Amino acid sequence: MIKVAVDAMGGDNAPVEIVKGVVEAVNENSKIKVYLTGVKDIVEKELALYTYDKDRIEVVNATEIIETAEPPVMAIRKKKDSSIVVALNLVHDGVCDAFVSAGSSGAVLVGGQLIIGRIKGVERPPLAPLIPTETGCSLLIDCGANVDAKPSQLVQFAKMGSVYMESVVGVKNPKVAIVNIGAEEEKGNALVKETFPLLKNCPEINFIGSIEARDIPTGYADVIVCEAFAGNIILKLYEGVGAMLLNKVKTGLMTSLRSKIGALLIKPALKRTLKGFSLEEQGGAPLLGLNGLVVKTHGSSKAIEIKNSVLQCATFKEQKINEKIKEKVILRDTD
Amino acid sequence: MIKVAVDAMGGDNAPVEIVKGVVEAVNENSKIKVYLTGVKDIVEKELALYTYDKDRIEVVNATEIIETAEPPVMAIRKKKDSSIVVALNLVHDGVCDAFVSAGSSGAVLVGGQLIIGRIKGVERPPLAPLIPTETGCSLLIDCGANVDAKPSQLVQFAKMGSVYMESVVGVKNPKVAIVNIGAEEEKGNALVKETFPLLKNCPEINFIGSIEARDIPTGYADVIVCEAFAGNIILKLYEGVGAMLLNKVKTGLMTSLRSKIGALLIKPALKRTLKGFSLEEQGGAPLLGLNGLVVKTHGSSKAIEIKNSVLQCATFKEQKINEKIKEKVILRDTD
Prior knowledge:
In chain A, about 45% of the residues lie in helices and about 15% in strands. Chain A is of the alpha/beta class. The longest helix of chain A is centred in the C-terminal third of the chain and has 26 residues, at about 230-255. The model of chain A has no long low-confidence stretch (mean pLDDT about 90).
């Protein structure tokens, strides 16, 4: 049985969509048991709406909620009875294998490190969302956990990202590239110049060199390595440019009678095509390198994302990702 | 008379589109004289196709061409008779006020600093393209000239960007923001944390705080400050995500007969709407803070961009941007 703690109170659509997603996940995979953390009365009232195997969803009471605006370190330390801290403790205590939350990113990242703790030898745990590309999706690692990371940390990110892409997403021998401002080896800032040769001499990964931001959406690389400041810009600009362009297209379609009729005709096809592009469709972002898995899903997550994130935890456990990280990332480092 | 040196040999469409754009510019503004640098026979043959005031376009022979792949510093030092070096010398010697090139970015940036030189007191000259937004355009400063810039340099970028946005683009009291990974003042990497309070205490600019990458396309800020590694990612991802999404939309429209008919109906409206979004439409990116103006246009520039860039040089001169930079950026610094 794979046991997943889920934050019932986190995100814009909690608890309704969270509970719905959890029910869908346990109904789809009979090897999963979920511990829903949150205000007991509220969560149980929501659960009462569904039919599911009562043995495989348990509500664990947590009376506090960490808000998105709260400073993360303080919140984790003070709100011991929050849905996030209670869930993290379930993983720390070995009751659960993994934790899924749509709540405060900062609290989830900080709490994951402080409460669950890093795998021995992992310098920093990176947050690694899957981003949509023309050909499928790529892993962006790190996108928010470690600004001003060091070269040795980026090398670990590259290795952990490779393991994840190969074992969880199923990409054979994934292509790894470092985000840079030009294709040539001598280009880049101090961090990239120092990291590039380390990646080049890394036998565990399929390093293909630099990737310019322009080529990220084409799917040129499977694992895209960068420190978190750059990664965060990439992730958020992806959203921003996408939203702006689609707005522009919609406005454009409303400018004449002719285009309005055309818009009605193209709507189904367009919707189908753009669905795969949505960041939400890709499920949650794993925080890798911890003694247990933490998956952070989008704050606006609906049931489908919560379900996918819980199922993702099962794959993570079944594929023994942490064992592989210990073997491929840590042992080799200390050879 | 405003005198502009133009690299006739730089870019994918040289010399055809360059010469065409130059002729259009001098025909549109009678106060402009252009010095076209390049292989004399080739340029004159192109020029012979057009009607224009012969006194206002002069060909200056330059027998060499700097290729995009050449290491910039070496190229500038060795190819003394290249179209770029000859043009830069015209500005250095005071024959010309400004220089426009669609050629090697590296060579133009390095050459601008080495040959024309910085305004006394300017620490680093930033490259500052205009990027399209939902409401118009914003100035992205710096997008490629200075990776690993220092806080004091970013402050100068903010001031120079404000002057440019106000005087050349015509935005009154432009809103200045620094690229960050969250809205709160305590967020960011070491560079941003150090720069934020300096910008906040800067009376010459209208500083509105941090901008997350997600909000850049909305036009939330007029001047977007960042060091060049981040700026380059923003600029290139803008292009990349835009191109990918439009491809997806096009592919989607071809999936059924119904959507194909719809596509025919929406085409004109869509084309009109998206035209303003193209990066090319915004003209060239100025390299600010030099003793003269250098404008780098896209490598794939057509005549329209070359024309706009040459006209932009006239506005730059007429608006006395360098005098304003000396007054607002430098004098205040040394107060």
